[in-house]
Amino acid sequence: MIFTPLEIISFSVLLLFLSVLFVPLLKGNQRLLINVSFMLISLASLLGLAGGIWAVGGGITNKLVLPLGLSDLPFHLRVDPLAGFFLTVICLLSFFVSLYSIGYVKGYLGRRPVTSLIVFYCLFLAGMMMVVIADDALFFLISWEVMAAASYFLVMFEDENIENRKAAFLYMIIAHIGAIAILLSFGIMAGLTTGFESFSGYTFDAMRQAEFPLKWATAAFLLAFFGFAAKAGVIPLHVWLPEAHPVAPSNVSALMSGVMLKTAIYGIIRVTFDLLGSFPWWWGAIVLILGLISAVMGVLFALMQSDLKRLLAYSSVENIGIILIGIGASMIFTSFQMPLLAALALIAGLYHTMNHAMFKGLLFMGAGAVLHATGERNMEEMGGLIHRMKWTAPLFLIGCVSISALPPFNGFVSEWLTFQAFLLSPALPSPMLKLLIPLGAALLALTAALSAACFVKAFGITFMGHWRGASMPRVHEADWPMRSGMILASHACLLLGVLPTFFIDWMDIIPQQLIGTKIGASSGAYGWLWLTPIAPERASYSGPIVFLGILFVVIAVYLLLHVRPGNIQRAPIWDCGFAKLNERMQYSSASFSMPIRRIFGFLFKIKEEVKLTPCGTHKPFPKRLNYHLKIRDRFWGWLYKPIVDSSFWVARHVGKLQQGRIQAYLIYSFITIIILLLFSR
Amino acid sequence: MDINIASQITSFLAALVLLTAFAMLAQRRMYGLVNLFAWQGLFLSINTAIVGFVAGKHHLYISSVLTLSLKVILLPYILHVLIRRLKVHKEVEMVVNIPMTMLIGIALVIFSYHLTAPVMELSTLVTRSTLAVALATVMIGLLMMITRRHAVTQIIGFLAMENGLFFAATSATYGMPLVVELGVALDILIAAFIFGIFFFHINTTFDSLDVDQMARLKEED
Fold first, then answer.
1. Do B86 and B203 form a contact (C-beta atoms < 8 A)?
2. Which residues from A are below 8 Å from B216, CB to CB?
3. Does B62 touch chain A if contact means CB atoms closer than 8 Å?
4. Contact present, A486 and A362 (Cβ < 8 Å)
5. Residue of B95, B113, B146 for testing the chain A interface, max A β-carbons within 10 Å
6. Which residues of B fall within a CB distance of 8 Å from A661?
7. Residue A113 has pLDDT above 80, yes or no
8. A368, A620, A623, A625 from A614: Cα distances, Å
9. Is B121's Cβ below 8 Å from some Cβ in A?
10. Which of A220, A280, A313, B155 has CA atoms 20 to 30 A from the CA of A385?
11. Which range is least confidently modeled, A66-70, A289-293, A413-417, A558-562?
């Protein structure tokens, strides 16, 4: 071959930058602009996808030094299987989402120009791809900032709404605090590599070679983890996520939630396993514990939401938690020299990364289709869409089943692998971990169950029953480009669930490079049919057989119901003898989550208010009942509000220095000079 | 020339520079202020020439001529024109009254002597005793900028500060390299021009050159 994977990927990035230049030329014809540019982006994604798959499949590591950047600090590019894997995740979802966008973005036609949306969409994708192929701290941070800035403008897209501006601002602040932490972490590593006199330690290669003293390595790890956690939305740094994702255009939320959060996961793996290399077990414990907290709290928050996209955003927090559980467990096992289990846990984390990109992308696309069709995000107003949206509803259902970790879809496989890593772990040599690991497994099980409940609610309230709002808008089904994006994503969910052995064989090279062991998806005797991590006598799962079994049951039930015409009867709903039922009497989103709110209510700040309007003077016979429910994130009051308040307080008092009089400013300098002279004497 | 005589002459000129600095603090009239500034420049120029002669540094002659042409002739001329055009030759307004300013000035001179005492012990130059005066001139220039409310007096304060710096350079190290001095001279000239243009604009915008008016530019909270 003439090309290397890295060249293909670089070409794909270049294509994205070229389309940025080319988009303003077509500004006059917005419809054409949408068609052409998203086609180009899909093409670029396919190219990147090919490069990524090839890099992982062939176990190829390519390097390239670009003569760009500052003088003496050229940009280094590198693709290895780990980068290739994340490129595959990014490009696969961006391919689906770009196809979907051809239809979705047309919804803005006539309302506002979409040129800026397309420009920043390209930059956003290019930024994410560059983050993954960067091989020095400088280029990494530049790409990181390109990604953050572009996504800021995408969140800001509908900037006439105050909630968009607020969300984008919050996102910007947290992204930058994170970026500063990452910068400091790279600074520590680069400084320890070559000393602070020379800059040559800024390449990742130099960092890989270096040996870091534990104290500094810990500082670098904690800073990097903090920075990446802010991007990934790990609790308690998650507050920007449920604000920014709902207000962004849905195709952008799909990408932000599906893949942008994953770049942070990439960063964590790159820094810990690759750059720092060796670490004590408690680093892994930190990652694991924060992952557990994010998973449980994330899904509980998700359950309480009635805004569909906000629910999905909180569910992303949960899934990031599950991924971090895998990675944290892998770190613990690595530091205790249990490479096989470490590899299994890492594979589980990475597998879930891929899966979450697919089903969360699918769900956000589905939510976008609903939003596009009804103009509504609040589930309390929706209902009965299954009759109007005959394509979107089953596709959304596939996403829900996948994210609820039910076989035969993909969510099951990765969560099952995570459980295997937990359950197969023999007695670890630390009493605290002996407690932590079973507790982790129990919490993970709780998370899976709660997330199933959460998505029963999401699907049931949105698509089942009758329309709850005042008047039903004219709902139209998504058009073909949107459908095709969702159909492809749902097929990816199914394939990843049914044929996990192929996928794990493909990515087995990553743990081999990072930890030194493969897990070998299927032990020889069983072939590709059975997924048997570690040993067949311990645990095994066969995607194809389960799939066929489920398919058989579904077909059998369908036939049983439809073989005789009288088997299904349609009749009016039994109204318990009361007066006529109306749409407001349906099961609602708030009532669905009521039992769980009762149990876990202490975790939230709940304000519940019932107001009765009596009929005349007869108190026992209310004419009307108003119910208000307000559920707030406690972290905001605990962590963020004090910081916000104190910074405003400081700013107000510092502001008093600004007199606006020249003399005052001169006096400040004069006094400063005199004091400095006094001290320097 | 005998080194002792040279040293005495430089000290005498330093005293004159300090005297003009105090005179500028006390002067109420705008024209008088510009004239005092020109006098200060003249003393500075003579001092530079003498130092150049004694130390045998011939590039100091160029600095001296430069000072003479810029600070004694050109800048006072520009300021005169400015004052006439803007019609601001009335009394100078002060934030702090004159006796108080003078007292602060005296405190600054004492502070400067205190500050430069260790330098004077180490230095072997003829001009070492004038360093404290130079530093005091700088601080008095800054004090003038703080205590005056009028924009033109502020620029004179700024230029007086620059005089002090120049003086310090001559007395501490027999002057800066010629290139640096040329650059500084050019900077001062350009600064004066820019200030002139700004004053015209400030005058048309605020109908006054009182810098207190500019407090209105501050963002309200």
1. yes
2. 660
3. no
4. yes
5. B146
6. 211-212, 214-215
7. yes
8. 41, 7, 5, 9
9. no
10. A313
11. A66-70
| Per-residue model confidence (pLDDT) at position A358 | 93
Q: How much is the pLDDT for A448?
A: 92
**Continuous segment of H or E residues that includes residue B219:** none
Show the tokens assigned to A564. 């005789």
CA angle, residues A201, A207, A210, in degrees to nearest 5? 100
Here the ipTM equals 0.81
Q: Chain A to chain B, count of Cβ pairs less than 8 Å apart? A: 39
| Rounded Cα–Cα distance for residues B47 and B36 (Å) | 17
Instruction: Indicate the range of A103-112, A452-461, B59-68, B188-197 predicted with least confidence.
Output: B188-197
How high is the mean pLDDT of chain A? Answer: 87
The pLDDT score that the predictor gives to residue A550 is: 92
Helix (H, G, I), strand (E, B) or coil at B91: strand
Angle at which helices A392-403 and A431-463 cross, to 10°: 170
Cα separations (Å) of A598 from A292, A460, A627? 22, 21, 16
**For A652, which residue in chain B has the nearest alpha carbon?**
B221
Cβ distance A670 to B217 less than 8 Å, yes or no, reads no
CA distance A681 to A675: 10
CA dihedral (A521, A524, A529, A531) positive or negative: negative
Instruction: Identify the sign of the CA torsion A362, A287, A208, A181.
Output: positive
Torsion of the alpha carbons at A106, A108, A112 and A118, rounded to the nearest 10: -60
- DSSP symbols for A406-420: -TTSHHHHHHHHHHH
Cβ of A663 and B217 within 8 Å? no
pLDDT in tens, B72-99: 898 899 888 888 887 776 666 677 788 8
A395 burial (CB, 10 Å; 0-12 / 13-18 / 19+) is: buried
DSSP secondary structure of A489-550 = HHHHHHHHHH-HHHHHHHHTHHHHHHTS----SS-TTTGGG-B-SS-TTT--B-HHHHHHHH
Tokens coding A322 = 């599950």
Distance, CA of A280 to CA of A302 (rounded, Å): 34
CB atoms within 10 A of CB A615: 12
- Share of chain A residues as helix, strand and coil, in percent rounded to the nearest 5: 70, 5, 20
- Residue A672 contacts B where some CB pair is shorter than 8 Å: no
Measured in angstroms, the CA of B217 and the nearest CA of chain A are apart by: 7
Question: Does B149 contact chain A (CB < 8 Å)?
Answer: yes
Does position A420 have pLDDT exceeding 90, yes or no? no
Q: How far is A390 from chain B (nearest CA, A)?
A: 56
- Identify residue A22 by its one-letter amino acid code: F
Q: What are phi and psi of A80, to 5 degrees?
A: -130, 175
Q: How far apart are CA B158 and CA A662, in angstroms?
A: 13
Torsion of CA A419, A425, A431, A436, to 10 degrees: -10
Residue A534 φ then ψ, to 5°: 65, -80
Length reported for chain B: 221
Q: Kindly report the length of chain A.
A: 681
- Structure tokens belonging to residue B181: 């001095």
